[in-house]
Structures are given as structure tokens and as C-alpha cells.
Amino acid sequence: MIKDFEYFAPKTLKEALTLLDKYQDEGKIICGGQSLLILMRQGLVAPKYLIDIKGLSELNYIKDAKEGLRLGATTTHRAIEKSPLIQKKYSVLAEMERRLASIQTRNWGSIGGNVCHGDPAGDPAPVLMALNATLTTTSLKGERNMAVEDFCLDYFETALKPGELLTEIQIPAVPPRTGTAYTKFNVIESDLATVGVAVSVTLGSGDGVCQEVRIALGASAPTPMRAKKAEAVLKGKKLTDNLLAEAGEVASTEAEPISDIYASAEYRRELVKVLVRRVAKEALARAKA
Amino acid sequence: MKKELKLTVNGQPYELYVNPKTLLVQVLRDHIGLTGSKRGCNDSSCGACTVVLNGMAVKSCSILAMQANGAEVLTVEGLADGAKLHPLQKAFLDHGAFQCGFCTSGMLMASRALLEENPKPTKEQIKEGIDGNICRCTGYNSIIRAVTAVVKGEYKEAK
Amino acid sequence: MSKYSVIGTRVHRVDGPEKITGNAKYTFDMVLPNMLYGKILRSPHPHAKILKIDTSKAEKLIGVKAIVTGKDTIGKKQGIWRRFPELCDEEILCREKVRYIGDPVAAVAAVDEDTAEEALDLIEVEYEPLPAVFDPLEAIKEEAPQIHEGVELNINVTRHIEWGDVDEAFKKCDHIREDQFKCSSQAHVCMETHDAVASFDYGGKLTVWTSTQASYYIQALLAGMLGLREGDVRVIKPPTGGGFGSKFELDSTQFCASVLSMKICKPVKIVLSREEEFTATKRRTPMYYYLKLGAKKDGTLLAKEVRVITDGGAYTGMGATALYLTGFFSSFPYKYPNYRYDGYRAYTNTAPTSAMRGFGAPQSTFAGESQLDMMAEDLGIDQIEIRRKNGMTPDYEVPGQAFIQSCGLHQCLDKIDEHIKQRGKLPPNHGIGIASYGFMSGGIFNWFDTPYAFSAALVRINIDGKVDLFTGACDIGQGSDTTLSMICAEELGIGLEDIRIHSGDTGICPADLGAWGSRETLMNGNAVKMAAADAKRQLMEFAAAKLGVNIVYDMDIKDRWIHLVDRPERGVSYFDIVKEAIRGRDGEVIIGRGHYTPHRKGMISPAYSFGVQAAEVAVDVETGRYKLVNVTTAHESGTVINPVGIEGQLEGAIMMAGGYGFCEDQPMDEGKILNPSIADYKLIRSLDMPETEILEVDTYEPEGPFGAKEAGEGLTNPTAGAIANAVYKAVGVRINNLPITPEKVFRALQEKKKKG
Predict the structure, then answer these.
(1) Which residues of B touch C21 (CB under 8 A)?
(2) Residues C289, C230: one domain?
């Protein structure tokens, strides 16, 4: 049962920020509401003031520039999935979106809302981490920029301060000889990840040595996380099958998964081991292509 | 405090006053009286409430009615053109693509939205189109056959 | 060319137009003037005494119009096995004790749902928690808490089926296997949750609209529990969003809405939330299975011993039937010269377990077909061969239990054999597993103690030749309205569009035991056929007189033409005769009556349908995840009345039975179901659904209308077993407990690797 609240539909970002600033902890942002409304219907979240930014067109954009891609926070998952630009230049984002929940959810839910929800099993965060993404939070006091890793603090907890709103996600231009891939393990195709893995590999020119690598795990810890020790196994080396397997092993020790009714922690670690190897291999193939 | 809500449903404009916590599905079912869209869950998972909003398939239980302010909504009641059934409805009848019927309006609206966006979807895309909708009776395949038949042009009308 | 005009044709469902336009009004959609909304307060404890219920604060909440507790009832216990009072153990609104998390203790009626919900929070209940037990193996121990007074060791039902001498027979076997299996629970997940609108009027009459499989059962049980005469209770079944076995017993929505309505003489609507649907309605019976199978080295099965303990949950419901049927169907579909089954049902402090599509047979088929494959492998015999060697054949008698007339099992085996051969060499880690089954077409038992025929129908022919068909049969989506209309049309020789069916309304339809146990087509079909034949005979009298037909000639009606069978051109229009018949009888419409109750049809059912299913899986050996690639089923269900309906039933069964094997589960912690939501309870969706193929085998069942028998429930039996066998064929590991999850497969593969 949803508790009563006072509702605002600000027309500009400034209006929204003013309201947020006024109501601080008692105010809550809603955009697509695909996660928030479930919590509100179950009585788990009951804000006094609801600030609806779904209509803020100034935050709804997909902009590509030399430096990279900029996504407005209210951009829907479906827009990202269907964007010809993203399909061409940042295809892993479109692929990830295609397996996120259902078309209905993607039509209305936003990427900003998903990231702010802070679900460790969410699909976008690991992919954004693999893409070395940063994001911008805005308040009346100004803007803050940070890496996605630094935004995800704990289980369903982000670095958003009272009065702040996520406004943009930035994905740096993909360097040459870079491949990024994502997969998630589940039993039902469109389900939340039991374990999710995103890997980005950048090869050096000529010698094919791995110059840059990022391995991001979803549903493997209280927050989406970078498997930095596993990355260290690969960085600066020529990526053989054995090395990729080793990276998987190391990643599985770094992960801190939980046991729940879907999978035990040990099984999740096994999945991390296998999936890191597989996704890294796919990323490598894409980097070579 | 109630807020003014203006939206068009099945081509008909409505002006309502609603408590902002009202969900779109409640406006459709309880305020306007269009009970074709159903509710089958409390966590946005079953799709029985699917309607088409500004051309997009959405779960009406997961949208605050106020977010539909100024929007055009199509429900199952608006599929047929007067007495003329929509090709999807005819195909559903021919292929037995429903049994208890409770998920059916959601399936029809998800399919309608899919075909408006992409008139020639592949079988995989048709499956994706209804993947957000649970059916406990049919096993989905008859629904996929019905939509495929429409895609193939079997219900095209002679001009 | 088909000898039938209507049956066997592909038709639109008669309830199609209303359903595909959103016009069908389910109980879920009903709004009546002055209607109130009800909510039920449920126990948070698995086992506790109710010390005190204080509703005073809730009563003061504005908008609350009535609150009831067990004290507002006449204090009876009910159960569907009415002939056995010891099995009628459920009060619904608990008076002294609660026995599972979700057991109702109070109900509120208010002006809207939110107010009713708020009121629940204001009701103060003082409980004295009692020790609880959650596993049947624990519940039957001496030290376990007693859940129902007078039920020792919490075992409230036992069943025994035996023929031959298994102990002697085992001595003669060349090979014996003993295996154990664990069959999980399963939730029905009807898209429309349980709901009811109850309206008690100032004249003392109660009308209840409800989503149900058996409006007659609800009528009778409500009357008993409310102290009303059956005739003063009318139960109406609007279009119903699924049942699958969950909706033919009296449930908390119907009962609480009625008690509330009786208190204030206003309509009260109660709709269960999806969470309540998962936690507080009945579910599939989990079972511990022990099987001992003995065979000769040529594959002849000599003896089978079965011991089952089922988890009964807090109340009996239909659990006694599930206990019996699982033991009976453990002998299916093979000829065992010696057989023994002992079944025990134990109460536990969990949501009651009762009937779900298959009714104990999916469990017995999973265990039995898994073991049979293992036996075949031990003996070095092909999986199809061992089934051929022992499979039931037409006109077989299960000793002392059942007469099987039509049986197409062998043709089904042939078709699946061919299908597997056609698939040829499979890619690595792919496997095809098979499972055979047989299932009943309605039960012969009258534990409900009804004085009425099990099925009855009434046909009324109006002046324009249009027929009203009245039947208590309940269409819950399975299509009985259409199938029965088709039978009526065929028998009367008219078109489907000439029939209008009225079903599931106890006020106007003759009683029918409802849609469960796969009984509607055979039992109600027979009743409808008889009613139509009765009406037809009355028309024929007039036609024969009008045509001046020689006594040696037979007459019939086909395509609305009443004619001589041998000289079809000599005849008269059905419509003309109808008019003359009515005029000739003082203006009385023609009424045909029919009924059916199985007599001397053995211990279980008048007829059985058989099939063989082949499931193909592709296993990812590194993770244990597998995909359901293809499920092909060869089945026979006698004459196919409604082909579109049967296809739908089969594909739908695969989704449900596949789910039972593949992903559906209700894990619990101390009696609390951990995944009571659609997001968390994993269901097969369109992207997960395998390719399905149906191979029809033609048979004819003398017991059934036009030779038809069940199709729809039997098809849920084989899939879990077929999947288990397929996984084994694919990667050599056997999972004996459901569901077969990727983690279980992964662990088994690791074990296998360790063993070298």
C-alpha cells in the first residue's frame, strides 16, 4: 500500500534541485519508477515528498562527441538499446540493455534510476565500470564527478547526498583495439543476474599485449565491483587461454558473493571463475577485430 | 491533495482528479472503468497490466498516473475498430492464443506495441516482445504463432 | 473425411470474443453497488495458540464497516472429504490455534482496500507460540509437536495398495534397484489470484461470485460452514483466470467475504494479493519417495515396492487424494505382476498441500521414470524397449484397481522412438530423455458425499432452434465451455454457433463436481451428450411422424437437417421441426436432461489417457545450466473433440510441468516461504519455452463421449522425469531431487569428475 505523499513535477532541473534542497532526506526522486514503485507499493519506502523528473527533457539525451558518450540520467534503457549510435560505437551497452528485464520496463525505466537504485545485481553498473565510465551528480551547490566504482557504496546505497541528483553518465571514447563484453548468469533468460561479468580489454599496437583491462562483477559482492587482482593477472601480458582462466580463478577469490535461495556463495564463485574467463575471451576477440 | 490529470485513453480525452499515489492501472480500471487491463502481481513482473503509452508498451501498474499526464494511452478496449477486430485479436481467436484469458490483454498490447515499432519482427523478437508477460495456460507458443501469422500478412485486409 | 461435423474441427473458443476484447468480467473486475473491500489478517506464527484478539482500535478506524474473527462463525471445521469427518480439519477462520504462517485469524470489510489494510495493522492478536515442525520426516517423530488434536505422530492419512506378492517376487528377480527421490512443492500461480464477492441479502440468501473450479463444492461447503441451506447459497463462476487445482476447495476469500457480508448485509469483495496467493493458498504436495524395483535380465518388470511420505502442511484439503493417486500412478503405465504401495501423509506447520495439476502423478512419474531409465541402463536395455516390454495395452486390468480400455501407449512409444531416431546424432552435451505416463479421466470416488450425479446437463431448445445448454462444469481456461458446446452441437446435429452455454452457476445449472482430476470432457461430456440425445429424441418423434417414416429406417440430424440415414435427401429442417414440436406440446420448450456417474469402473477412473514425452536438453557443463531445447509429446486422448484446445493444454502443460522440473521451487525457512512473488518464484517465460511438437495417436475410448477421454492433466506428468533422464543422457549425472537446478547439475558433475 503506497502511503500518501506530496507530488511535484518540476519542469526544469533547477526547479528539481530546489525542491530536493528544500526537502533533503524527506524528498525522493522518481524517474521511471520501475524499481522505486515496487518498494513504495510494498510499503518499504514511503517518501513524504516525491519529485518526478521523468518529464525533465533536459536530462534526456544521448550525445556523442570526440571525448566520448554522454548519457542524460533520465534516458530510458530502451532508447540506449535502440540507439544506432550506441549499437555501432558502444555495442556492449545495447547488448546489456537488451537483456535487462522486459521491453515494458526498458521503455519507461531510466539508466540513471537504475544506477541510483544501487542493486548489486543490476546490469548497467558493471558494464559502465568496464567502460571506465564516470558520472555527474548535481545539487544547488554545484556538480561532483566520480567514477562509477566510487558511486556505489554499499548494498542499495550510493554516494548521492541529500539535495543531489544524478544528472549525467559519461563513457570515454573507446580507444582503438578495445573490446568490451558482458554476460550474466541466470536460469530464466531475462532475469536478474545470479552473477554478472563485464570485461574490457585494450590491446597494445602491434604486439597484442594487453594494455588496459577492466573486469567488473555484478551480484558478486554488496556492490558491483572491479576484480582488480584479476585485472593485474592480465595487464601487460599476452592474453592466452590459460591466463584468462587464471584471471577467472583470481576473480572468484576476490568476489564476496552471498548465499541465497538461488545459488550458494561457492557456486557464485564458480560462476565468476567461468564467466570471467569467457567474457574476457569475448572481449579479447572484439579487441582484435 | 488531489492533482489534475489529463490524458487520452483509446482516443477519448479524460479530465480527472487523482491522489498522486494512484497508479495508471488504477486510473484505467477503477476511475475510467476499463477493466480489460489486469493486475497479477505486486512487483512489476507479470505484465498483465501492459498498455501502450505514447506508442510504447509499458506496465501500467508501474507508472504513477500523474506521469501519464498529457499522454495517449491505448488499452485492449481500444484495439478493435468499432465492431471490427484488430488483426491480432483475430489471430488470437484463430490460434487459440489464450485460455483463461487473464494475461491476454497484456499479451495483445505488448504485441501491438511490438508490431507498431517493427512490423516485421523475427520469431526471436516476437518472443522478446512478450517476454515481460507471464502466461500460465498456453505455454506461449500459440501466442507466438498468432503474432507470426499477423506478421506474415495473413490478416491483411483487401483494400 | 471426418464422420463428425463439429467435433474435431478447429473452432474459436466460445468465450473468445469477450476475452480478446477485454470485455470478460472476472471476479477480479467486479464492482457492485455499496460493495466493501475486505482484507484478511493472517498468523505470523507457524504454530501458536490464539489467546486474545482485540479489534477495538480497528473498529474505530473511519471507513471500517465490519470485522470478524472465528468467534463470528458457527465454529465448524470443513474439508472436502466430507464422508470422513476426521479429514475435515480446517476452520479457515481460526478460533483457538493457528497452524501455519498465513492461517487466517480475522477479516475486515472497509470502504476501500487501503482502509481495510490499515485496519489489519490495528487488530491486536495475542499469540502463545508453540513449537513447530516443518519437515514430515521430523513431524512423525515421537517428540514432534502435535499439530491436530488426536492425530498421533501427525500422520493423518495412510494408504495402501497391493496386489501379488512383492516379497516373493523380488526373490525371483535378476536385478533389483532401490532409489530415493525428493519431489518438491509447486505453486499454481494462476494469473487471477483467489477472489470472491459475497453478497448476503436481507432475505437471508447468499450469492457468491468467485474464481472457482467447482461452484457446487463451494456452495455446499459454504452452506455447511455458515449454517445456511444449500438452496439459499448461490455460487456463480464468472470467467476465471486459471485454477490448476487450487480453486475447488473452500478458500479464505469465499468464506471470509461471506461471514463479513452476513454480518452487515452488504457485498464484500476480497482479492488475495500475489503474496497471499503464494503463502496462504494450498500448493502441490511435496513427497519423499522410496522405490524398489525388480526385473528379470530381459527387462521384464516383476515387482515394485513404493513407500511415500508426503508433506501435508497444516490441513488435509485434498491431500488424501494426492496420497492415493501418487501410489496408484506409481504403477503406471506398466504391467506389474506384483505391486505394493504404502503412503503416509504427515501434517507440518507449513501452508497446506493439496491438489495441483497431476495430483501426485508428476511426482510418481518423476521418480518412477527416472528409476526405470536407471534399471534399463543396469540391464543394458534400450529405454524404449524396456517400456515396450512392460507397457500397458488396451483392455488391461490393473489387478483389483482399474480397467483400462483404450490405451495407445505403444503407438506413442513408436512415435517417440521414431522422433529420437530422426533427431540423429546430437551435439555434445545434448541429451534426449523420455518419460511415459498414464492419467485418469475423473475419479469414481464420492468422498464429497454428494447425492447428485457427478455430472449433469440440461439442454433447452428454443423456438428459433437456438439451444441453451446448462451445465455445472466450470471453464477455468481449459476450454470446457467450448468442448461441451461442441459435444452438444455434434449430438444434436446442429452448429456450434447454435449453442449458448451457461455454466458454473449453482442457481441455474445442475450440479457438477467441477474441473479437476481431468473429469470435465469425459464425465460432463457424457452428461451433455445424454441431454442432447434426450432433446434429439423428442425432436425425432415429431420428425418421424411428419415424414411418415417406415419403422425399419433410422433417423439422424446432421447440419441442421433431420433425415433418414439411408436416404438423406428425405428429411426436414431442424428449425421447422423445433417449431412444430413446441406447438405440439402446448408451447413447452424441449428440454433434454443428462447425467453421468461412473458405476463399477474400478477404484479410480472410468478411462485413462497415455503418452510418452521426449525432452531434449543442452547442458553447459562448466556451469550446470541447461536449456530446454525441444519437448515432443506423443499422446492419445481418445477422440479429439477440440483440437485447438488440446494443443493449448499440451503446450501449457509443458510450461507448468517443465517448470516443476526446471526452475519452480518454494524454499522455506521455519515455515516461511522465501520467494512469495512472481519476480522471485521462477517461471518459464516465452524466451525460455522450448520448441514443442505434438504427435497425435488415434484411439477411441468407449467410456467417453464420442470416444473422448482426458487431455490436459496427464500431460503434466512426464516432463520432470523426461528432463531428469535427458540431463543424464546429456552429461551422465542424475539428479533425484526437484527442481533440477544448474547448481545441482554442476555439483553432480564435479562429483563425477572427482570419481574419475
Answers:
(1) 36, 76-77, 79-80, 85, 89
(2) no
